[in-house]
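Annex B. Sample input.
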Amino acid sequence: MTAPRWKHDCTDCTYLGAYENADLYRCMECSLAALIPVLIARIGDACLDYMTISAIVFPAHAELVRASSPALFKAYELAQARRLI
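Annex B, continued. Sample output.
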């Protein structure tokens, strides 16, 4: 697994790996009441250089996510493979 490319200031996130230009994470603390995992694709160092989706919402929108954000789709696959969601 490669090291993260971009700065990420949440110490509670679990680094999943990289996909294309994105660093991928799963986080519980960034979610509603820390109950639902959030998937994050960080694409730069700036505060707003990321995309995110709730893991609970993902299955209903998987094909849309695959088409619009392949990095978030990959984050979901990696988190599932590691049994983090």
